[in-house]
Write a structure and sequence with these properties.
The protein has about 240 residues and is α/β, with parallel strands linked by helices. The protein has a single domain, classed as Glycerol-3-phosphate (1)-acyltransferase. About 45% of the residues lie in helices and about 15% in strands. Strands 1-7-6-2-5-3-4 form a 7-stranded mixed beta sheet, sandwiched between helices. Helix 1 packs antiparallel against helix 2 and helix 2 packs across helix 3. The longest helix is centred in the N-terminal third of the chain and has 26 residues.
């Protein structure tokens, strides 16, 4: 039964994602890329996927999320992370996604229509281009941009991978706050080395206090990165603490 539920969830994620993509293109003339109708379609798709998987989502301190533009950063250890964050984040949220996801047609077309940004992890030029696109969205579209600073999934029973600088360089350049989120439990529900997720389970999203960047300069980026990474790491050490 658990296997069937996981398989059903995967089939929905793909074929339901195709339907969501068609609806996103239908909604495109209603306000351009990333309009509220597209974002609602995306959120419903993610929520239904979690429901089919039997995942219970617990969110702590979501009220800390800034109302305006910000850079959202989270740890990353499962394919499930993207679904729980799509479900939980409110407003105009854009994701920095790895270029390999472009192969998931038609889902990738839907992501493009909304304005999510694709980056080739092995290319510095692609990384710089992604940061420039994200900066434009933060400055001119009042968007929130989500980064996984580790760049790829870390092992659930191992340390986090080194955090990259892009998110923090962007936050300082745009002078917008950084919103850290600690994601707990996704690796237990969908381990990175398994094709199918496990049915059931609980995931915790803990919104940590946002870190302001007003007045910070280029030389402060490393300290900002280390400060935010330390906050997330400390929260992951005590996931049951409120």
């Amino acid at each position: 039964m658990a296997f069937l539920r996981g398989l059903t969830g995967l089939l929905w994620a793909f074929f339901g994602g195709g339907m969501a993509t068609m609806l996103c293109f239908v909604a495109l003339p209603l306000g351009g890329r990333g309009n509220r109708y597209q974002l609602m379609i995306q959120r419903v798709w993610a929520k239904v996927t979690l429901w089919i998987f039997g995942i219970r989502l617990r969110i702590e301190h979501r009220d800390r999320l800034p109302k305006g533009s910000c850079i959202v950063v989270a740890n990353h250890c499962s394919n499930l992370d993207i679904f729980v964050l799509m479900s939980a984040l409110r407003g105009d949220v854009r994701f920095i996604a790895k270029m390999e996801l472009m192969a998931l047609v038609p889902i990738s077309l839907g992501m493009w229509s909304i304005g999510h940004i694709f980056v080739r992890r092995s290319s510095r030029r692609s990384g710089r281009s992604a940061v420039l696109q994200a900066e434009d969205q933060v400055r001119h579209s009042n968007a929130k941009v989500l980064f996984f600073p580790e760049g790829t999934r870390s092992l659930p029973d191992g340390p986090q991978l080194p955090w990259r600088m892009g998110a923090f360089a962007l936050a300082v350049a745009a002078q917008v706050p950084v919103q850290p989120i600690a994601v707990v439990g996704t690796a237990n529900c969908w381990p990175p080395n398994q094709l199918f997720p496990r049915a059931g389970g609980e995931v915790l999203l803990h919104f940590l206090p946002p870190v302001e960047t007003q007045g910070l300069a280029k030389g402060d980026r490393l300290q900002l990165k280390d400060q935010v990474a330390a906050c997330v790491t400390e929260r992951l050490k005590s996931p049951t603490q409120a």
